[in-house]
Amino acid sequence: MANAEKTSSGSDIDEKKRKRKLSNRESARRSRLKKQKLMEETIQEISSLERRIKESSERCKVVRQRLDSVEYENAVLKSEKMWLSSYISDLENMMVTTSLTLTHGDGDDQNAKAGMAAGDCRRRPWQLGCDSLQPMASFKT
Question: Where are the domains of the chain?
Answer without folding.
Answer: 16-100
